[in-house]
Design goal:
single chain; mainly alpha; 6 helices
Length: 144
C-alpha cells in the first residue's frame, strides 16, 4: 500500500494535489475539508496505521498468551470467556484515529485518481471521478 502511495507522489506533482475539485463548504466542524485529502496526509496516516495496527496485534496476542499460560500453570481448564475479555484491545485513540486516518487515505486516493484522469486528458472519466470524490468529500467526517 505504501508503494502505491509513493508512486502517486512521484508521478504527480504535489502542487496539483492542492487543487480543489469540489465547490462546497463544510456543513459542520467534523467534516474533513478537501484540503486534508493530500498524498502527504495519506502517507502520514498509512505510517501511523502501520505502527498502530502492528502494536495492537502484538499487545492483543501477548494478553491472550498470558491468559492461556495462567490457565496451564494452574492446571485449570482454559476459560474461553477470559480469553474473550481481551478480544478488542482498542483504546479511545484507536477507535477514533483508525477510521479518521482511513478516511484521509480514501479521500486522497479518490482525489489523486481524479487528478490523474484530468492530467491524462480523459474529460469524461475525469468528471465521473471528480463527482465520486466530491460526493465522498461532502460526507467524509471525523469520528469524534
Amino acid at each position: 500500500m505504501i508503494r502505491i502511495a509513493i508512486l502517486f507522489i512521484v508521478l504527480f506533482p504535489t502542487h496539483s494535489i492542492a487543487e480543489n475539485l469540489c465547490a462546497s463548504e463544510k456543513e459542520h466542524d467534523l467534516i474533513i475539508g478537501e484540503e486534508e485529502f493530500t498524498m502527504e496526509n495519506a502517507l502520514k496516516a498509512i505510517n501511523n496505521l502501520d505502527h498502530r495496527i502492528y502494536k495492537l496485534i502484538i499487545e492483543h496476542g501477548e494478553r491472550q498468551i498470558v491468559k492461556f499460560e495462567e490457565s496451564l500453570k494452574n492446571n485449570q481448564p482454559i476459560d474461553t470467556s477470559k480469553l474473550r475479555e481481551n478480544l478488542t484491545p482498542l483504546d479511545t485513540e484507536s477507535y477514533i484515529g483508525i477510521p479518521n486516518r482511513l478516511s484521509i487515505i480514501r479521500g486522497a486516493l479518490l482525489k489523486q485518481n481524479a487528478l490523474a484522469l484530468k492530467n491524462n486528458g480523459n474529460e469524461t472519466e475525469y468528471e465521473l471521478a471528480r463527482i465520486k470524490f466530491c460526493y465522498y468529500a461532502k460526507d467524509a467526517s471525523y469520528v469524534d
